[in-house]
Amino acid sequence: MFDTAFLDLPALSAAGGEVHLPGSKSISNRVLLLAALSSGSTTVHDLLASDDTRVMLDALREIGCSVDAAGGSSVRITGLGGRPPRSPAKLFLGNAGTAMRPLTAALALLGGEFELSGVARMHERPIRDLVDALRQIGCRIDYLGTDGYPPLRIVQTPGVPALTAPIRVRGDVSSQFLTALLMALPLAAGTQDIVIEVLGELISKPYIAITLALLARFGIVVGQQNWQRFTIAAGSRYQSPGSIHVEADASSASYFVALGAIASSACEPKGITLRGVGLDSIQGDIRFVDAARAMGAVVTGGPNWLHIQRAAPGQGWPLRAIDMDCNHIPDAAMTLAVMALYAQGSSTLRNIASWRVKETDRIAAMATGLRRLGASVEEGADFIRITPPPQARDWKAASIPTFDDHRVAMCFSLAAFNPAGLPVRIQDPGCVAKTFPDYFEALLALAQAPAERIPVICIDGPTASGKGTVAAALARQLGYHFLDSGAIYRVTALAAVRAGLAPDAGNEARIAALAQTLPVRFAGDRVLLGSDDVSQAIRTEEVGVNASRVSAMPAVRAALVALQHGFLRLPGLVADGRDMGTVIFPQAPLKIYLTASAARRAERRHKQLISKGFSASIGDLCAALQARDARDGSRSVAPLTPAQDALVLDNSDLTIDETVARVLAEWQARQPFAVSAQG
Ligand SMILES: Nc1ncnc2c1ncn2[C@@H]1O[C@H](COP(=O)(O)OP(=O)(O)O)[C@@H](O)[C@H]1O
Ligand SMILES: Nc1ccn([C@@H]2O[C@H](COP(=O)(O)OP(=O)(O)O)[C@@H](O)[C@H]2O)c(=O)n1
User: Fold this and answer.
1) Which positions are catalytic residues (predicted)?
2) Which one of 196, 268, 413, 439 is least enclosed by Cβ atoms within 10 Å?
3) For the ranges 184-193, 340-349, 398-407, which has the lowest average pLDDT?
């Protein structure tokens, strides 16, 4: 997951390949609650691992269900099955509406004392209509903060209240209230039919269809008339299906359907293949496929898969503008708003008032981001109209605020295919954790960009100047890959010595041959030579000196070039070494030559070695590093010297954090985003 302050996506040019989507958030949480209300155990497969499912699982444990890992993405839930929930209990539900609403209804019916709270945004998301419906039937629920919003306290004597009249609930604000009642009211259907009447036009009907389909899997049959009246038959009982698979999220599929529709396929495999959700999905958002087709996407599919390709020029590419009622696909329709950037003419998405009360005001959020990209946007209470930038040159490099809304973040990643070749900055990319923690990894695995567009920051300099430390910290903060080229030379030296080859000029050809096929791999912080973990072994001073020797051999350096180029991958790279800016990545937009006085560097190396349990004397180290500087600086190939366009940074009197901050400031200053103006 990209847990960084922002993620800069370079302009992307093409995409292709296959992706397996994670389980749906709303199906995951519905299934978890139904399993918790059933008797016996239910093994839930393909459960989404995300913030929202985590808070639901924690809450279920808190009220007395047992939750056991069942391998991979499976969990086994042993439900209450008629037992009262553990009470009193305080439940923290983050920003998960799919936990807050159904748990409120279920706990109010089961009885006990509960406090349900969430993050600040959750306390701004209305719940009055559900509370009013539950109060009608005698449930005691109090607001602990603002009237009409969580946090809530439930104090209800155990035992489900008797129901005499139909329960009425508004259906025109959020369908989640009706879902909550449909999932909880079978608890009250022991000896009587339960009738729920919807007031107003029910929005998001497809989400109710998912609820009904899942209730049926748990043995509860609900009759419905016109989406206005729902009847749960007397004697209904939650029956665990034993095991159940969570479908992948059709809303998450929308980003990849859109990706296939807008990205060209540079090479085989053509187009995007999605696994985990297909044309037979129980999720209403699968209808997004029809909307994407209307805009020009070429979509085929089967029971558990979809394949999407961009249309031929003039036959759906550029995309066609649409004017569409999106009530049936409220979440996925956000993706259409970004697809509209690639359409000819203005697109209007209507009947989307529910966007205003989601994780953020999504109409405002989409309008903000789209305008920053250069589109003209008109917004109303329940619609948004998008006119793309007229020409490629009218696009702008934008820093997109995501308002802690996973879908906003995912949608706007698609703007990286803009015809102007501009990068896009996604602020707080970690907010995708709500439904799709590895979204950006999945996108970047499919997306392609020409090597010259992938940004590289080079940090070169003498030994112990802090290159490795600073480069690794930068890579972490930017979400970029990290190349420790010194480690490659160290591994080469170690492999040579292990092969009986002394690091002398006479062995150059043989060491180069060995370097050509060096089986080195980086796995997080570990360095592997074949299957041998050599992370520690390569850090001795002896290996450092041998590395300096083999690195002076032109044939060895040549043999390692391709290996180093291979590290240049999306979304970007921070490369640490001696010749990153001069030889390996001469096109890099930022080159830092990091240095410090020999005395300071010897001190640092001394501390580092002592902390790793190696013995060393500062005097010896200072002499050795000066000798190494001389050898690295005087060798015939790629001598240690600042690139002409490098920025020399002497950090003798800077801390690590100060050094990183300086480099980061240089990097930010080179970005096209108007950061200060845009926030
Ligand atoms: N600016 C700095 N101030 C103090 N110590 C530093 C600084 N930069 C790095 N160090 C420490 O110096 C040691 C050597 O840094 P390292 O990143 O291994 O250098 P290099 O990769 O240039 O050889 C590390 O233990 C690191 O924590
Ligand atoms: N790009 C690079 C990186 C390292 N090297 C050599 O490899 C040796 C070990 O690299 P390193 O970065 O781990 O060394 P230290 O700076 O940590 O001592 C250095 O002394 C250099 O001689 C190089 O020649 N070119």
Assistant:
1) 331 (proton acceptor)
2) 268
3) 184-193
How far apart are the C-alpha atoms of 65 and 59, rounded to whole Å?
9
Q: Is the CB of 578 under 6 A from ligand 2?
A: yes
pLDDT above 80: residue 159:
no
Q: Can you give the length of the chain in residues?
A: 679
**Helix, strand and coil in the chain, % to nearest 5:** 40, 20, 40
Residue 428 to residue 426: CA distance in whole angstroms? 7
User: pTM to 2 decimals?
Assistant: 0.84
Question: Which domains are assigned to the chain?
Answer: 6-22+248-451 (3.65.10.10), 25-245 (3.65.10.10), 454-480+571-678 (3.40.50.300)
Contact present, 357 and 173 (Cβ < 8 Å):
yes
Residue 613: what pLDDT? Answer: 85
The owner of tokens 């949608």 is: 411
DSSP structural state of residue 195:
E
Cβ contacts of 504 within 8 Å, gap of 6 or more: 549
pLDDT the model gives residue 43: 97
How close is the Cα of 656 to the center of ligand 1, in Å? 7
For ligand 1, atom 9, the nearest C-alpha belongs to 466
CA nearest neighbour of 640 among 381, 501, 458: 458
* Whole-number Cα distances in Å, 142 to 136, 139, 145, 172, 447: 14, 10, 9, 23, 50
Mean pLDDT of 393-412: 97
Show Cβ contacts of residue 527 under 8 Å, excluding neighbours closer than 6 positions.
487, 491, 520, 521, 533, 534, 535, 538
Q: Decide: 275 and 18 in contact? Cβ < 8 Å.
A: yes
Helix axes 485-498, 541-550, angle to 10 degrees: 90
Asked whether 492 lines ligand 2 (CB < 6 A), one says no
Instruction: Please enumerate in sequence order all residues whose Cβ is within 8 A of that of 386, keeping only pairs 6 or more positions apart, or say none.
Output: 337, 340, 341, 346, 347, 348, 349, 370, 375, 376, 377
Distance CA 528, CA 537 (A): 10
**R_g of the chain, CA atoms, integer Å:** 29
Query: How far is the centre of ligand 2, averaged over its atoms, from the C-alpha of 548 (Å)?
Result: 6
Strand 526-529 with 532-533, pairing? antiparallel
The per-residue pLDDT for 158 is: 75
| pLDDT at residue number 571 | 98
Question: Complex ipTM above 0.90?
Answer: yes
Residues near ligand 1 (Cβ within 6 A): 461, 463-469, 604-605, 608, 651, 654-656, 659
Residues marked as catalytic: 331
Which residues have C-beta within 8 Å of that of residue 391, sequence separation ≥ 6? none
